[in-house]
C-alpha cells in the first residue's frame, strides 16, 4: 500500500441506504491508515444536516431490489408492488425494517457513524452550490464539517486521491 | 507456515506478519512489534488497549474491531487514533499477537 494513499468520497444521495457506502468504506480506509475526505453535495447534504441526518428514509417505491421476503413475507423473488409502496406509512415501515436490521448487525446510526469517522480524522466538506440552492448555513451542519467549498476547491484538495462518487 | 524471531523467541506468523498462535505471545514481543509499527514506547494507555484485545482474543479467538475496542475498553475513537496512528485496530491486533480484525465496523 502506498504510504500516502488518499481516498475521497462524493456523497450525492440522501436516502438511508445510500448514506452507508461512504461511511463503511471511509471507516475501512481510516482503519487502514488511508487519508479520507468526504464531499457532500445535492441530496447528500441531508447526511450532514443536523435536522435531517436522523430522519433519513428508504422508500419501497421503484426499488426493484426490495423484496417482499424482507418484510417477513415468504414470497421468494416477488417484489413489493409499487401500488402498495405508495400507501401511507410504507416508507416509514421500510425505513424501520432497515434500521432494525442495521441495529441487529451492530451498525451504528448514520449520525453516530459520521462522528466516528470525524474522530478518526476524516475531513468533511459541504458543497457551496448545494448550500446556496437549499438555503443552508454552516450552523445547520453536524460537528466535523470543516467548511463550505466549491467543486473547484474540492478538486484542489483531492489532488492525487482516488475519488468515489456515490 | 512462516516463522520469525521476535524478542528472542521464534513464533509462527502469516504472510502479513500477524502472529498465528496467540499463546506464543509475550509482552517483550509486543514491545518489539510496537517499535516496528512506529510506537517507541508502550504507555499504560497502550497496555490497557492491548490487554483488552488479548482478553477478547482469548474469549472469541478473534481480534476485536475498532468499534468493539472503543465500546469495550472505555476509550474513544480519537484516543485510539492518537495511541495507534494510521489503522489502530490492525496495529493493536498485530502488537497483541492476534490475527487481523475482521468485520466492517
From TrEMBL, chain A:
Name of the molecule in the record: NADH dehydrogenase
Keywords from the UniProt entry: Membrane, Transmembrane, Transmembrane helix
SUPFAM superfamilies assigned: DsrEFH-like
Name of a matching Pfam family: DrsE_2
Transmembrane segments: 20-43
InterPro entries: DsrE2-like, DsrEFH-like
From TrEMBL, chain B:
GO terms under biological process: tRNA wobble position uridine thiolation
Compartments where located: Cytoplasm
A UniProt-annotated Pfam family: DsrC
Keywords associated with the record: Cytoplasm
GO CC annotations on file: cytoplasm
Keyword Transport: no
Domain of life: Bacteria
Positions annotated as active site in the UniProt record: 104
Claim: Ribosomal protein is one of the keywords in the record: no
PANTHER family: SULFURTRANSFERASE TUSE
Family: Belongs to the DsrC/TusE family.
Name of protein: Sulfur relay protein DsrC
Organism expressing this protein natively: Levilinea saccharolytica
